[in-house]
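We were asked to recover a plausible sequence for a given structure. The inputs and outputs are reproduced exactly as logged, with field labels preserved.

PROBLEM: sequence recovery
POSITIONS: 98
GIVEN STRUCTURE:
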């Protein structure tokens, strides 16, 4: 799904299936329906700065995904305080480990 250091900026939400997040030989997470990934790259950090992908995401079962562009994610976060909190919480949790 995602290769480390890729410059793509979409956020993905797993609708069905599962995926593994890894860096090298280390598994960072196993994701299933309702989980999301790609938030670090999708967020607008100002001055057009975006993180490159910091880990690999590999499908471990056939995936059906909802794909959100950075612009759509920003709009959704602006309209939904709950989505905003969820995404920002994930960033705080995941950034130090990467």
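RECOVERED SEQUENCE:
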């Amino acid at each position: 799904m995602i290769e480390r250091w890729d410059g793509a900026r979409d956020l993905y939400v797993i609708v069905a299936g599962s995926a593994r997040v890894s860096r090298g030989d280390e598994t960072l997470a196993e994701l299933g329906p309702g989980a999301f990934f790609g938030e670090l790259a999708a967020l607008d950090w100002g001055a057009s700065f975006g993180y490159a992908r910091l880990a690999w995401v590999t499908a471990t079962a056939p995936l059906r995904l909802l794909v959100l562009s950075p612009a759509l994610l920003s709009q959704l976060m602006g309209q939904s305080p709950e989505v905003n909190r969820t995404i920002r919480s994930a960033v705080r949790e995941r950034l130090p480990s990467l």
